[in-house]
UniProtKB/TrEMBL annotation:
Species in which this protein is naturally found: Amycolatopsis eburnea
Keyword Signal applies: yes
Pfam families: Acid_phosphat_B (PF03767)
Name of the molecule in the record: Acid phosphatase
Residues annotated as signal peptide: 1-27
Gene3D superfamilies (alphabetical): HAD superfamily/HAD-like (3.40.50.1000)
Keywords: Signal
C-alpha cells in the first residue's frame, strides 16, 4: 500500500461514480444556473465514507476497532469474482505448461478495511509500517483459498506488491501466518537498486513496475494464468492470460 493517496478527495472520487445530488438541488426559486451548479458538486465525503462502510458491512469490536463482515456485499462480490477466476484456472490446467498465478497483497491477499476505517481512510506511511510490523491486516479468505488450491494443483504462486523491499520480510511472515503457501517468488518495489528487468529503474510507475515484473516471471518459463489485484494499475500491461479485478472503493492508485 506504499504510495497510496492519502487525501479524502481520492476516496470521494473512487466512490462518486453514479452518485446523485440530494434533494434540494433546485436551490433558489427558479434559478437554472443554481441548479446546474449544484448538479456539478462532487459527492459528499462524509456520505461516501458511510457508503463504503456499509459496503464492507462495517462493525466495531469491543475495543472500538472497525472490521468488515463476511456477509457484506464486499464479501459476496469478492467471492463471486474469485470463484469465476478459479473456474478459469481449472479450465487451463493441462492446457498451459508451467501455470502460475500472481497476487497483489494489499486489498487482494490481505484486507486493509478495518485499518483504513480506523484511520478515517487517510493514508499514513508510519501507521502503515506499524500495521505491517504488527500483522494487523487479515487474509482475504477467498483469495487465500484460491492460492492454496492452486499450489496443491501444481500452480506456481507469486506475490507482486507495491510495498517496498524493506517491508518484504515481515509481509511474507504475515502472509505465511495467515495460511498462504510459500510462493515461488515474491516481488517488492525496489528502493535501493532496481533489477535489470526494470529499465525504468527506481522511477517506475505502478504499471511499469508490475507489468515489467510479470514479463520477468514469464521469462523464467512460467505462464501467468491469473493476475489478481484490486487496482486497474495492478492489471494493465499484459503478461497474464486473465486479469482479475477485485472490488476496492477505498482508494485509487494510478
Amino acid at each position: 500500500m506504499s504510495g497510496k493517496w492519502s487525501s479524502l478527495v481520492k476516496l470521494a472520487a473512487a466512490a462518486a461514480i453514479g452518485a446523485t445530488v440530494a434533494s434540494g438541488a433546485t436551490a433558489l426559486a427558479g434559478s437554472d444556473d443554481a441548479t446546474a451548479a449544484r448538479a456539478k458538486e462532487p459527492a459528499n465525503i462524509g456520505q461516501v465514507k458511510n457508503d463504503v462502510k456499509a459496503y464492507y458491512g462495517d462493525y466495531l469490536d469491543a475495543a472500538g476497532k472497525h472490521h468488515y463482515s463476511e456477509t457484506s456485499q464486499f464479501a459476496k462480490d469478492s467471492n463471486r469474482v474469485v470463484s469465476d477466476a478459479k473456474r478459469y484456472l481449472q479450465q487451463q490446467l493441462g492446457k498451459v505448461e508451467n501455470p502460475a498465478i500472481v497476487l497483489d497483497v494489499d486489498d487482494t491477499s490481505e484486507i486493509t478495511f478495518g485499518w483504513e476505517a480506523d484511520n478515517d481512510f487517510g493514508f499514513d506511511p508510519v501507521k502503515q509500517q506499524q500495521a505491517i510490523d504488527n500483522g494487523t491486516f487479515v487474509a482475504n479468505k477467498p483469495v487465500l483459498e484460491l492460492a492454496n488450491w492452486a499450489v496443491q494443483h501444481g500452480v506456481k504462486l507469486y506475490f507482486l506488491t507495491g510495498r517496498n523491499e524493506f517491508q518484504g520480510p515481515q509481509s511474507l511472515k504475515n502472509l505465511a501466518n495467515e495460511g498462504y503457501p510459500a510462493p515461488a517468488g515474491a516481488f517488492f518495489k525496489p528502493k535501493t537498486t532496481a533489477p535489470d528487468y526494470l529499465p525504468c529503474g527506481l522511477t517506475c510507475n505502478t504499471v511499469q513496475y508490475k507489468s515489467g515484473t510479470r514479463a520477468h516471471i514469464e521469462a523464467t518459463g512460467a505462464k501467468i494464468v491469473l493476475n489478481v489485484g484490486d487496482q486497474f494499475s495492478d492489471l494493465e500491461g499484459g503478461y497474464a492470460l486473465r486479469p482479475i479485478k477485485l472490488p476496492n472503493p477505498m482508494y485509487y492508485l494510478p
